[in-house]
Amino acid sequence: MTADSDVLVLGGAGVDTIVHVPELPLPFADSYMIRPGIETRAGQSGDFVALGLSALGLRTHHLDMIGDDHEGDLVRALHRDRDIPFTAVLQPCGTKRAVNLVGPDGRRLSLYDISRSQESDRLPEATVRELAAACRHAHVVITHPCAYALPLLREAGVTISTDLHDWDGANPYHEAFALEADLVFLSTAALAEPERTMRDIAERGRARIVVATAGADGAYLLADGELTHVPAATPPAPVVDSNGAGDAFASGFLLGLLGGEDPLRCARYGAVAGAYACTVPSTRADAISRAELLARAAELWDTSATEPAEPAGGRV
Fold it and tell me: Is the pTM value of this prediction over 0.85?
């Protein structure tokens, strides 16, 4: 079958306010004078994945709930300006917002406003079914409404990926996503035993590939029962912000996956995209191009710079 889009991204649309701080953790003080200042821009996890996929030449559609507010207008403008199809479902509580404290070394601390959602939030079943029927793959952000879309995606027969971010391996909220996805990304940040958690996901769930990103230490790839360490890619410019690096990694990985590449090469693509993201200031929404990713991968790992197979056919 021919799909209208390569990847359907569900969830993760929102707005971040970026605050540069002199250090993290930030010691208590009555006030701080900061530079370059405070800026607000559209772009949370789903936005960044959609942006990364689109920049890599993958046909991408984004679906989420946003408010009829100024922040929602920023999200719509981001997608419109980048020519990324976006289906917006009205969120009465308003568009998701967060404050990111960014240190001089690029590390960040994110504060999420959970008042922008409610227990009854759902993505309309008919909309999910329609968009799922027209895509090859779905990437699901771990926001509350998306958990209820997982069975609908499974019924549609699309493969599913998700990012558990800094899951500790125990919080039950993440399990529905971890066990229903065919491809699982997560960070090692809160994991005492990353390999144990990765194998548990694969053994208990549907995942045939599990990837744990470890920042400057690279990533760990579990595929076909074999654990492989993937070195970090050298950033092409100074590191200024780690925000969006995990989303970029997922985008690069999916480029390889949908092009029929083996998991190791997919992970190398992800490493290159993630390293690039760390050179982009948090006040900007930018992503590596397909040509630059392939060139960097060939340079760093002596891989063939041949284009991945065009992801224009049936489902993976």
Answer: yes
